[in-house]
Structure of Dehydrogenase:
Amino acid sequence: MTQKTIIITGGNSGLGYQTAKNIAIAKPEWTIVIASRNNERMSQAVERLKAETNNRNIYGIRIDVSSLQSVREFVNHFKNAELPPLYGIVANAGAQFTEEVITEDGFEGTFATNYLGHFLLIQLLLPLIADNGRIIMVSSDTHDPAVKTMMPAPVYTDPSILADQKMSYEMLRKYSAFKRSGIRYTTSKLAIIYFVHELSRKLIEAGRNDIVVDSFNPGLMVGNGSNLARDYNPVVKYMWNHMAFIIPHLHYFDKHTIRSVTISGRDLAELMLTSSNAVQSGQYWDGDRMIPSSPESYNRDREARLWQWSLKVTNLREW
Ligand SMILES: NC(=O)c1ccc[n+]([C@@H]2O[C@H](COP(=O)([O-])OP(=O)(O)OC[C@H]3O[C@@H](n4cnc5c(N)ncnc54)[C@H](OP(=O)(O)O)[C@@H]3O)[C@@H](O)[C@H]2O)c1
């Protein structure tokens, strides 16, 4: 199989864009789908990628991962596009909202965007994934309170509460709005790891152990390459965009967590392209190193419950 397709959610900017660029250069015969919520940003990214990589097989298909309807529409468009066999999915799109957000399906915004939409996307695309395919979900070392990232520790509880804006707000109301948004973000990144663990086990049970599903930590990618701070207040946003050079000198951060979209985009592309024999499923990659995720992230009960709850709310059957 020389021709393969890779889907990258949020591939129009930051880490997703850099990953797409590296894969497009390394594999000029492969097809890359930039799955992005904004048509204009998506088209611009596709044209820029074609120009920068000389790979002509780059397409955009719209998706808003916070909307279950949009995820379903994306999958239909993808099927109708009749592209080369689907080899891999990079579930990269992510957001941190500093205000209270309820999605059109009635879910809390961060949980729906970072976790639930990708859960549905991957479930719907799984039957299309070719032999020895690869799924990488972008998590974050902020899920692990032992790593000094300046982000608050996750506060995990039943998904029915995490996904309900009102209940989640009640649970976190003692915190400032900014801290609440940080907790929701780190909790969603922990949920991603639970999903990766459960999915890798289910794939083995279903006889699809040729598919590798892992999570990936890109580290702290401050600087103009990442737009993750778009909703931060102007002071923090300015620091994020223009003062990245200071951060390595601050003792609040573990040095090894500080990276850039260039470095992490290279690591993520390499992970996608590494042969299946060289990687294990259900693992956590910190850049180019496979390491254990936080102790809290290994919890079979939570993993099973999150799986069951997610199937139910997305109207999918157990498999
Ligand atoms: N930056 C960091 O320090 C850092 C650290 C650890 C983990 N991460 C993770 O790395 C991933 C990439 O982040 P980044 O730093 O590259 O930030 P970024 O530049 O903001 O990229 C995020 C991408 O996700 C897209 N996105 C957001 N909400 C979406 C939705 N509802 N539907 C579809 N696409 C959506 C954005 O689209 P728009 O352009 O339309 O907004 C953008 O393309 C995220 O999962 C983030 O959580 C980042």
